[in-house]
Design brief:
It is built from 18 helices and twelve strands. It has 448 residues and is α+β, with helices and mostly antiparallel strands. The strands form two sheets. A six-stranded mixed β-sheet has the order 1-2-6-3-5-4, with helices on both faces. The longest helix is centred in the first third of the chain and has 19 residues. The chain is globular and about 65 Å long.
């Protein structure tokens, strides 16, 4: 006998766990105790992100992050050493941060953290390993760039910014090729080995000595220096404009519409993300309903903010059949103008609230997810109750808030449209859109 489906209960309230902070030497330990969670996430955050690189050493942070995995003995020695303790290496370099860490059983946390400390403070950095890792990054760069959507996304920086942001985080093929083992050693010594940073620890910490972990990782390293933030200059050229990255014979086009946005500290995130969800951040978003469901041009479309300490980017991305490229751009711009002119509906507002609040207990149910939230707080100088403030911000959103965000944060007349596709077949229809000048670029010359 079939039973009737139970009615869903009311969403459970969620409060982010209060972290504990303590100073150890030149660094800070930030920890969340999760009773019963016997697998811990440990992250070391340092400010040596890509934006700190000199222009003649672009890519050195990413390459250094890769080489650390070779450990103190070189030749990829770190992974098997960690595996003996059931642990796994974690490394991520962003524009604003240099993050390393381990995921490990709490019972072996001391051994795993000792290996983390060795890898970060005293790695081998053998020249052969540096060159091997550099060659792998270069090969990976072009392999990933063979995907039209990746190629278009990597071209955003050069269209919106001058300076470091104009070149991809990994340095691009030409710049990265010039990063020598000596430059990696110098960067590591000054930006990584000699800087204490912040250590995030999440798990069942009842029997964990946090001060000992901090002392192991920080040693006698210096405190994190103050890193000034200066908004980058905009790239030259008329706005709006269209740039075609020529891929002869391509039957699809990858589309990016991007413009500059405020920095992480300047933006009202619930309002901005809520508006972005309505436009293209949910399956039921306006762009997806128009381009996928009604017109059938694409399998999906999305939009998001890429927020950094000194600036930001808003981008819309999709892939469409080549003959529909110009119409897809027109439809996208029409949806933006419609949102700005007519505002959001109550149904859209309700969907935004629910999608950003109901799932929080699940979103922060693992040590890794809790550690990721703490990393974001450290990188962007956010308060300890940042997640709770964010939740409260979504809960009190009004339709007027999202309408205002559409006017404040959507700037179609300041956009660059990047099209990765067959220029010979696309250029004519793109010029008819009257979205400013249309230029055609060979992808292999973008970062030369």
């Amino acid at each position: 006998m079939l039973q009737s489906r139970p009615e869903p209960g009311a969403p459970q309230p969620y409060t982010f766990p209060k972290p504990r902070r303590l100073r150890v030497g030149g660094g800070t330990v930030v920890a969340i105790d999760v009773p019963g969670q016997r697998f811990a996430a440990i992250r070391l955050i340092q400010p040596a992100g890509g934006i700190t690189e000199p222009l003649d050493r672009m890519g050195v942070a990413t390459l250094t992050g890769e080489v650390l995995e070779d450990g103190v003995h070189g030749n990829s020695s770190l992974a098997p050493a960690l595996e003996r303790h059931g642990a796994e290496w974690v490394s991520r370099v962003t524009w604003d941060s240099f993050v390393t860490g381990v995921d490990a059983p709490v019972a072996r946390i001391g051994d795993a953290v000792a290996l983390l400390a060795e890898a970060v403070r005293t790695p081998a950095l053998r020249p052969d390993d540096v060159v091997r890792r550099r060659d792998q990054l270069l090969e990976r760069f072009w392999l990933e760039a063979s995907v039209a959507s990746t190629l278009a996304t990597r071209a955003i920086g050069g269209q919106l910014f001058t300076g470091r942001y104009a070149t991809p985080l990994s340095g691009g093929p030409v710049r990265l090729q010039s990063v020598t083992p000596e430059l990696v050693s110098d960067f590591h010594a000054h930006a990584v080995a000699g800087v204490a940073g912040t250590l995030v620890v999440v798990g069942d910490l009842a029997d964990v000595d946090l001060e000992t972990l901090g002392a192991t990782v920080f040693g006698d390293a210096a405190r994190v220096p103050d890193v000034p933030t200066t908004p980058p200059e905009s790239a030259p050229g008329d706005l709006p404009r269209i740039v075609v990255l020529n891929r002869p014979g391509s039957v699809q086009s990858a589309l990016i519409l991007a413009h500059r946005a405020p920095s992480r500290s300047e933006i009202d995130l619930p309002k901005a993300d809520g508006m972005s969800d309505v436009l293209g951040g949910m399956f039921t978003s306006r762009l997806n309903m128009e381009l996928r469901e009604r017109l059938g041009y694409t399998y999906g479309v999305g939009c998001r903010f890429d927020l950094r300490r000194d600036s930001g980017v808003f981008l819309i991305s999709t892939q469409v059949e080549a003959p529909t490229t110009a119409d897809s751009i027109s439809a996208t711009l029409a949806e933006i103008e419609k949102l700005r002119a007519e505002g959001v509906t109550e149904a859209e507002l309700s969907a935004v609230r629910e999608s950003n609040t109901v799932g929080l207990p699940v979103a922060y149910s693992t040590p890794r997810s809790l550690a990721s939230a703490l990393v974001e707080m450290v990188v962007h100088d956010l308060p300890e109750d940042h997640v709770d403030r964010l939740r409260a911000g979504f809960e009190r959103l009004t339709a007027a808030d999202l309408d205002a965000a559409a006017h404040d944060y959507l700037r179609p007349r300041e956009s660059v449209v990047i099209v990765a596709g067959d220029a010979e077949h696309l250029e004519g229809s793109l010029r008819k859109l009257d979205l400013g000048p249309v230029s055609v670029r060979d992808p292999e010359t973008l970062w030369s």
